Amino acid sequence: MIYLAIPYTGREEFSFSLTTAIAAELSARGEVVYSPITHSHPMTKVRELPGDWEFWGNIDREFIRACSKMYVICADGWAVSTGVQAEIKIAKRIDRDYAEFNTGIDVFYLDVKKLESGSISVSGLDIDEIVIDGSHLVR
């Protein structure tokens, strides 16, 4: 399962739209994706909930532990986002009970500058074109 991380605070609607579009595209390709923003953002519309990492971190930590890899959407602010940086740290430190994952989970970084300049729709997007760490997302 893929954990999809993106900076959220200060760009809530944009982050929700972009991460949901990418999650949908990956799901259409047969990937199993968990997007915490796609899951959590609608909850903030029906109930007042804390917006800080202290609250959401406990929830996100459990989902990260269930995933085999993480994709970080490198939208503006990702390198200084408290949540994204904590998610990466958790992903890299996870201990697995079986040898294949004993060094944490793989983290891939997605460059979204092309997406931010225009439409948020990512239908048909070649995900490999936006990988910035040299790893391939679709094998």
Structural notes for this entry:
Helix 1 links the parallel strand 1 and strand 2. This protein has one domain (2-130): 3-Layer(aba) Sandwich (Rossmann fold). The chain is built from five helices and four strands. 42% of the residues lie in helices and 13% in strands. With 139 residues, it is of the alpha/beta class. The two termini are 14 Å apart. Mean pLDDT is 75; it is low at 96-103, 116-126 and 128-139. The protein has a four-stranded parallel β-sheet with strand order 2-1-3-4, with helices on both faces. It has helices at residues 12-28, 36-46, 53-66, 82-93, 113-116, and strands spanning 2-5, 33-34, 69-74, 106-111.
Number of domains: 1
As a percent range, the share of strand residues is: 5-15%
**pLDDT averaged residue by residue:** 75
| DSSP summary, beta strand count | 4
Spatial strand order of the main sheet: 2-1-3-4
The major β-sheet equals: 4 strands, parallel
The top-level CATH class is: Alpha Beta
Give the overall shape: globular
**Can you write the helix and strand succession as a string?**
EHEHHEHEH
Structural class: alpha/beta
Write a brief caption for the model.
This protein is α/β, with parallel strands linked by helices and 139 residues long. It contains 5 helices and 4 strands; from the N terminus they run E-H-E-H-H-E-H-E-H.
